[in-house]
Amino acid sequence: MARAPKDLLQGTLDLLILKTLRLDPMHGWGIAKRIQQLSGDVLTIQQGSLYPALYRLQDRGWILSKRGESEEGRAVKIYRLTAKGRRQLESETASWELMSMAVNQVLQAT
Amino acid sequence: MDHVWRWIERLRRLVFKSRVDQEVHDEMRHHLEMEIQQRVGRGMDPAEARRTAMIDFGGVERYRAEARDVRWGSRWDDVLQDARYALRTLRKQPGFTGVAVLTLAVGIGASTAVFSLVNAVLLRPLPYAAPEDAVWIQTSWEGSPNASISPAEFLDYRDRLTEVFSAVGVYAFGALNLTGDGEPARVRSAGLSSQAFDALGVAPTIGRTFTDAEDLASAQVLLLSDSLWRQRFAADPAVVGRKLTVNSREWEVIGVLPADFRLPEHLLAGSQAHLFVPLGIDPANVTNRGSHYLSGVARVRPGISMQQAVVALETLALGFGQEFPDAYPVDERFLATGVPLTEQVRGPIQGPLWVLALTVAFVLLVTCANVASLILARADHREREFALRSALGAGNGRIAGQVVVESTLLGLAGGALGIAIAYGVTHGLVAWMPFDLPWLADVGINQRVLIFACLLSIGTGWLFGLFPALDVGRARLMMALKEGAKTSRGSRRSQRTRRYLAIGEIAIALMLLSGAGLLGRSFIRLLDVDPGFQTADVATTRVSLPSSGYPENGDVTGFYRELVPRLAVLPGVTGAGAVTNLPLATRLGDMNFEIEGRPIPEGANSPAADWQAVTPGYFEAMGLSLVRGRPVTASDVEGSVGVVVINETFAREHWPEEDPLGKRFRLGGEGTQPGMAQVIGVVRDVRHESLSQDRKPQMYFAHQQFRFWGSVRAATSMSLVVQSPLVLSEVRAVIRDTVRELDADLPLADFRTMTDIRRLSIAVPRFLMSVVMGFSMVAFLLAAVGIYGVMAYAVSKQIPEFGIRFALGARPRDVAQMVFVQGARLTLAGLVIGLIGAVAMARAMSGLLYDISPNDPVTLIGVCLLLAITAGVACWGPVRRATRVDPVELLRAE
């Protein structure tokens, strides 16, 4: 199974977290699982790096956390996207698409 | 809403650090537990599941630290940590900390106090609307650089410059007798033209100003000062329309001016006008262009630049010479120009204040140098500490940063104490200021001053922390941890920096001391100046006769003819007289004349002399000794020969070889019928305007003979001068009683002794000298401490070297000489640099000196000697220490 390099492109992890939180608020482990799931297990990030990223996004005002309960009834922190985070996701998605399209074009040209 | 939560979260993380840290921990643990559970669920062995989950997660501690570090404000943590560390180390060294904080407090306190003055006086706008558009009109001609305006000129400025000025106003000062309810009082007043209020930019708080018609007709309407309104009318808001008895006539109050309003001349003076009346210049009657007695202010029209306006004014005035050739002879070089009002007002105080500011800046520099030197010495001792921290992974920047944090803390502590000192010093300075500024009321530690003090504290902290921080950065590079490294390159470099600092301190101390010395010597010369008259046991008070009670000239002269002899024969009084212009308290006008038999050639200047009028007895009462001839007497009445008493300078200038007695000259004033004056006596020169004034020709007329010098009215307002050895209060009582015998309603004003007047006249130089001297003593003491510190430290570093020298046979004398030479080199370098600075500074302040050259060798040599001796004394302790080095003990210690 092909694995993505351990160090994701700077900013990619942020984009993935924002995307994951777009639909539902989630706790940390859930986010990690969802990323893994959605990427078909290709993007297994080093799971610990998720946490600094979560705090960074929170500090930028893109996500917010509140106390909540996990499915098993344990007290956990649940993260959700803010309006600002939603806008950030849109602009980052657009620029990601532009870039990946450009890279694809270059790769297909040869 | 999201915003609010974001900030709450940020603050929560900043404040509840450990709780947040715990949360990260919990979150991660939850993650791992879930992960393990999932893997076990897939059938993995629990131990294996745990192992793989940990691997996939990565370093728990690392990510925890990373999560913590994204916290907002985490950079402040370092600073806070440094600050805590610095506080601990500073507390452990109370001696060092105490000296540094105290030194800084002195520097910051003095600077803050002076800044509060500068802030209140120089940085504050004048109490007028848009003061930047107000122009002071200044006239000058040959021999009179700062003259006033004549009525005819005023009308020209007002009516012919409307394109550039929206208002041109003039005013003249006077005094009026306020009677009616309560004690009769003599109140300072001003007559203003109707546009003067607009030109100044002031509006009454209640009521209105004069109309043009009221001005023209000299209507009996007046405005009150705020303080008179409060005193006399108990701040009655319905004061407009009320009547006031002034000079025995009824006047109507039409308005009250704002509390902070003063006419420009009064902004820097203790006095203030309280009644404002129409000036009443009627164009129909104005022909005389020669009598310049009005102060003029104009307001520049919006859209016109100050420069354009001034050019227009100058151009108009330059044309006067052609328009009125009789009134403006070419050789008089008549000019008028405009000066921004703010500049005009602040002019006299600016010089002294900048000298103060400069002095205090130097004191601050010396304090910084001293503290920097202290920190450097301490940094040497801490090399091991720094090296250790560096070995443990602290970056260069982090260690230097810590020194900066320490310095900032010291600066702030010094600043806090300094503000307390400044509080006291400011009050002292204000109490001492010879300028009784209305503004000084709110000199104090206000918000702006506090901000200044804080910035100053932080700034000085960085300034004196800078050198040590740079040095520390370098010190890290060498291996201080190495055993046996006694003197390091870093410490040698910092020792060099300390030498430079000491040299700088000596230089600055020299500059300040020589400045103070010059001011002091020039002040002593001022004290020694013989004013020409007697100041001890002479009291004076001013009497003004209202025209209502004394309508005729005969009434006026009769009053003084009656009063003066009555005063003179009182028991305990040894002399009495009266004069129009009191020396050292007033200015004199001059008058041209033409000596009989010496016609003035075409185009040349006619000679002039300052003049005043006296009653019989004045010279005796003033102790003004008669050199030749006789004084003015009661028999010099109107109609008899016009007499004049001249001073020695007058006699020397015009009759150097001859006896002036009996000589005659014709007085020349335009538009008057001048008379012939006959010299009857010669008196000593009087320093009239100030003690530092050059001698000028002066002449004294008899009060009763006012007509012959071209006046139409006898002087109604005179200063009584009474010589008496009695106690002052008794003198005052007898004068008052005697005046009351003649006129019970007549108020007396400005009761003072001539000693007071003399002291007041040199209050500015006294103030400046005292403050500069005080500050330079502070700088001097600090510099002495600085030299001692550097030398003591240098010796302590050289002790091993001295030990070896002794072991090799050097005598104590040789070592002492070595140390002295080191000290002498420092001192000499400081003195040379300081001398250059001192000469430059003295040149800049030569305007504040009297009768002493800026390069006065006595002062410079004296100050150099003082500093050299002080440096020698400062070296004495270190030298003794160096000569007592015991080589044996030293070698054992090695």
Q: How would you describe the overall organization of this protein?
A:
The complex is a heterodimer of chains A (110) and B (894). Chain A is α+β, with helices and mostly antiparallel strands and 110 residues long. Chain A has 4 helices and 3 strands, in the order H-E-H-H-E-E-H. Chain A has a 3-stranded antiparallel β-sheet with strand order 1-3-2. In chain A, strand 2 and strand 3 form a beta hairpin. Chain B is α+β, with helices and mostly antiparallel strands. Chain B has 4 domains: 71 residues, no CATH class; 190 residues, no CATH class; 311 residues, no CATH class; 200 residues, no CATH class. Chain B contains 25 helices and 22 strands. In chain B, the strands form 3 sheets. Chain B has a 6-stranded mixed β-barrel. A 6-stranded mixed barrel of chain B has the order 14-15-20-17-19-18. About 1% of the residues of chain B have low confidence. At the A-B interface, helix 2 and helix 3 of A face helix 1, helix 2 and helix 4 of B.
What are the key terms here?
heterodimer, A: 110 residues, alpha+beta, Arc Repressor Mutant, subunit A, disordered N terminus, B: 894 residues, 4 domains, six-stranded mixed β-barrel, 25 helices, 22 strands, 15% strand
Q: What's the short version?
A:
Chain A is α+β, with helices and mostly antiparallel strands. Chain A has helices spanning 12-21, 28-38, 50-60, 83-109; strands at 26-27, 63-69, 75-81.
**What's the mean pLDDT score of chain A?**
80
Largest sheet of chain B: 6 strands, mixed, barrel
The CATH class of chain A turns out to be Mainly Alpha
Low-confidence segments of chain A, given as residue ranges, are 1-7
Oligomer: heterodimer
Shape of chain B: elongated
The total of beta strands of chain A comes to: 3
What is the total tally of β strands of chain B? Answer: 22
**How many discrete domains of chain A?**
1
How are the SSEs ordered, and which strands pair?
The complex is a heterodimer of chains A (110) and B (894).
Chain A lengths: L11 H10 L4 E2 H11 L11 H11 L2 E7 L5 E7 L1 H27 L1
Chain B lengths: L1 H14 L1 H25 L4 H12 L2 H10 L4 H19 L1 H28 L12 E8 L2 E4 L3 H10 L4 E15 L5 E8 L3 H5 L5 E2 L4 H5 L4 E4 L1 H8 L9 E4 L2 E8 L18 E4 L16 E6 L5 H18 L11 E6 H41 L1 H9 L4 H37 L14 H29 L13 H40 L9 E7 L8 H16 L6 E5 L9 E7 L12 E7 L3 H5 L3 E4 L12 E6 H7 L9 E5 L7 E8 L14 E5 L14 E7 L4 H15 L5 E6 H8 L1 H45 L4 H33 L12 H27 L3 H7 L1
Parallel strand pairs in B: 4-9, 6-8, 15-20, 17-19
Antiparallel strand pairs in B: 1-2, 1-10, 1-11, 3-4, 3-7, 3-10, 5-8, 6-9, 7-8, 12-21, 12-22, 13-21, 14-15, 14-18, 16-19, 17-20, 18-19
